[in-house]
Amino acid sequence: MRILFCAFFLVLLVAQVLPASPFARDPSCHSAVFPPRAGRCVAPRASPAGTRSTIGLSPRVSTKNPGLSRLASSFLLPGSMKALTGLVLSRKGNSVPSPWSGVSAPLAQPSIARNSRALLAKACSLSSSHAVGEQKRRSGNLSDSPACGSRNARLYASLSQARNMSTKANPYAFAAKTLEGTQKTYYDLGALQDDRLKTLPFSIRVLLESAVRNCDGFSIKPEDVQTILDWQKSSQAQKEIPFMPARVLLQDFTGVPAVVDLAAMRDAMARLGGPPSKINPLVDVDLVIDHSVQVDYSRSPQAFEKNLAKEMERNSERFSFLKWGSTAFSNMLIVPPGSGIVHQVNLEYLARVVMDKAKNGNRSLLYPDSLVGTDSHTTMINGLGVVAWGVGGIEAEAVMLGQQISMVLPQVIGFELTGQLSPSVTATDLVLTVTNILRKKGVVGKFVEFYGPGVKTLTLADRATVANMAPEYGATMGFFPVDEQTLRYLKQTGRSDEKVDLIEAYTKANYLFAGQGAHEAIAFSDRVSLNLSEIQPCVAGPKRPQDRVPLNDVKEDFQVSLRNPVGFKGFGLADAQAEKKVEMTYQGKTYTLTNGSVVIAAITSCTNTSNPGVILGAAMLARNAVQKGLSVPPYIVTTLSPGSQAVTEYLARSGLLTDLEKLGFYTAGYGCMTCIGNTGDFDPEVSEAITKGDLVVAAVLSGNRNFEGRVHPLTRANYLASPPLVVAYALAGRVDFDFENEPLGNDSEGKPVFLRDIWPSRDQIAEVEAKALSASAFVKIYEHITEGTPAWNALKTAKASDLFEWDEKSTYIHNPPFFQTMGKEPSPIADIEDAYCLLNLGDSITTDHISPAGNIAMNSPAAKYLQAKGVERKDFNTYGARRGNDEIMVRGTFANIRLVNKLCPKDGPKTVHVPTGEVLPVYDVAMKYKAEGKPMIVLAGKEYGSGSSRDWAAKGPYLMGVKAIIAESFERIHRTNLVGMGIVPLQFQEGQNAESLGLTGKEQFSISLNKGEIVPGSLITVKTREGKTFDVRCRIDTELEVKYFQNGGILHYVLRNLVKQHAEGH
């Protein structure tokens, strides 16, 4: 009994008396899931440094009884409890700031810190043994008890049910230190005194620091810290950990639906009796408008201004809504259109590398910058040493509202780079090679961390290029730890010397700086190596980024692909069709188009335009070509769409911008543009020639994705290439071109000009870069980044209010149905019975196949909806721009013209209504099944949901009525999105697929979900009405995801928690 009282008083002391660790994330002040209770965050009385203290007393605890802690410590607690109490109540030595300005809490002595884990473990054992024993006696169960951490967590929860759990102290408070030479605090990983620290990859150390800093014993527990420290075993066992990112990054295609969801959640909060203001971002949110601008005009000095004006005209309603959001929600920064691409702006300006934040007027806390972004290429910032990855909009919204990410602790592949790049090789060639290697290796769901002597030879921009394409090689991250190159880049892009010095000091002090030999002690899950000197110039295509082709082989590869059966490397043309030519008259001259003719040449995408080396290389190649008298055919849509205005600033300073323009590469806009399919329409003469001959024409772009139908509906072949090669292919006019043996043209003297004659050397590029790039160029651009154009500033916004006034006539912004019928308690999970297969799909179905971002086809269900609303064809805009309207997006689900459905493989984005045999658009069939009360499933192959982090690829099927996806494998972000919308991802067992099981897609499927009581990763039985039975793996991967699914989705889970806490007075 005495031990039970000891445990009770220990919990009481921890919860009521002890200080939450300085700057620990205290959800009572900073979390929507754990909102503030009355009286919290009030400054206590100061205590002199080095003395006993009751810092952190809540006003709810009587301060008239100063003997409470002494009573508990002296009279009730066993010796080990006294030791623990002494550890946390009497901390002599260095002082660290308290959670309140001007109050200091003494720091534990090193000897105490070294023994803290042992003391905590012993106290845990003592405090839980009695409770476990009592439970056994009552139940008669005398089997072995669970691990100490789990027992203690349950005991704590049972004793604190009626309390606000967020008042718990951080057991790692002893690790809080003052950074030498500053007045800033940080959590010192070295204070853990654990030899495993130096064996952890740098990326895992960032996860560890977050767990230590945010540990509150409830949402993040001490055992989570131990799980990360034991990373080698934990990652193999696929253990779950929580992670709280420091920031959220949005672009407007995903940002608009995110703000729509937040506004809809406020409506639901009000309907369920809670204050709408509870729905509010609690972390920094940066939204960069970059996805809306289209290439309506090109090859003109006025292209940028005209495209920007068109963008504002088309999207004024969306932009006005975002401006309302920036005033209605706190912690939200909007970067206006025409500023740049989100990832490049993040790299050059937004990223902190080390967060330096004061809470409530306190001294600053230092901790690693980290973020999640609603774009899969958020990983670009990994090149700067920032832990980040892409998530779906729904998961990002949950993070905004204070919900930690639940993730399986990933394995880390160590990628060793040796040697250095050859003079003719670019960072683009490097990343395409890495993508090819890692796709073959298989790194889905894993971190990749780069190290070795070759890393030191890469510029920061080169690293960012490699990190950017992590989604293409399948990894969650492609991480480069902070080193000297990082610091050099930060100074180059205008960060202050003081800030950079602080970053250096913090990362070196906290085992986060990759110095000489830093990776020697790290025990990676697996290793890959690449000698940079062996990389050759290359492109990737014609349909996937992982299909690397050496530059010298492109001509032959394309010709073979023309005749290969339809597939990733085949177009299925007969010999006669492969040789077809079509003449056209364009601007008064006759030109011939063939299979392989280049019709788009775009220097685009943050992947490459963030890299001064390849941009200046392209400009120098253009200068040399102009000097040789070469030109680009006028029918080719040539565009320059830089990721930031800093690019055109240094191009202008170098004097090379005009050379690009002379070849037609005028600045078309500062946004994603061609890279995401905002390519605009071809001139009629070009479109007619392509369609007349049914030609396989090509786009060459410096982008990161080239899935069929993404870049432009009429370019069936799409090749990713470096910016210099984009210029080279524009000059050649064909992709089936042998640069080694075929001249690009003749110079003024009639001599043939080969690519090697105009290709700039690496030394020449470096010389120009040194002169053109300066910190002042970046400072000049970014000091006005949020000001916007006159047109932006003139936008009218809805009146400031907690609730948005929805306009039912709007075709851009519509109140979604996700929360409109939601109750305070979740509905029971029903089994899936007699479901029809909506689609039977193959491998590599991308989120663009599921929810396209490009043009809205004239005969599509979405087009019919818009026409019924009185919208003219010219004002359709794109699916991406319409993501704030669920009515359009559900109609656009599975509407990609390149979608191949095995139920009707020749009919485009259509499917079969199985009971009647009718072939209709997918949306129409889904609505028939819904009207009949029949659930639906989808069958698919490998890599289902690859590509962009597009939450509408989960929202759309959900609104259609799809209950489960059965696939051979899922891409990481999309699997999470499916769970987040309450759709069950189910995976065929190894070696099985729909075909091997004899499934045609015309069966009816029944799946038992055990009323939602699902074990993550367990086998689930599927039965068909026709008599087939097979098991599939449930890809709800964590216990927290089970809770999301039981609630109908992650946002429903968060919203119910908020409503419940309000009802309880929290």
From TrEMBL:
Residues 863-990 form the Aconitase A/isopropylmalate dehydratase small subunit swivel domain. It holds the Pfam family Aconitase. It catalyses: citrate = D-threo-isocitrate. Keywords: Iron, Iron-sulfur, Lyase, Metal-binding, Signal. Residues 1-19 form the signal peptide. The keyword Lyase applies. Belongs to the aconitase/IPM isomerase family. This is aconitate hydratase.
